[in-house]
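ok so for the tutorial part 2 we go from a plain amino acid sequence to predicted structure tokens. step 1 is just haveing the sequence, like this:
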Amino acid sequence: MPGRSSYTADEVEACRANADALLAAWEANDVDDTTLENLVFAQAVVALDAWFAHRLRTLEGTGGNPMNEVRVLADSIVGNDGRLRLADGIRWAPERTVLRLAAGDEVLVSADDYERLAGSYLAAIEATYVDPAS
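step 2 — the prediction. this is what the tokens look like for a chain of 134 residues:
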């Protein structure tokens, strides 16, 4: 699939609805198991990245923004045994990221972390890839 320079508002809203449904289901079940919580929401980050996996990286930028963060986290979860691995070319500063992780840190994602990350990520996707006129 070729890279995409735009997404529709409906595509972003579908992803947001999916993230919101996961968070609501988690909260409704009142699970008190941090190991399970981290497993569920780490995989949710991978899914979040997959919704917009074909986005053009040139539009995404390299400044350590939420789009970079989700991509780096997903890559680290899938391809680096859950340890944060930085992608070439990204200017990563933990204090400017949502989860504040540094290279080599274990990627642990709570429901609260996921909610903040998904919100920031989807806002960045909307601002960068959705044409307000569409």
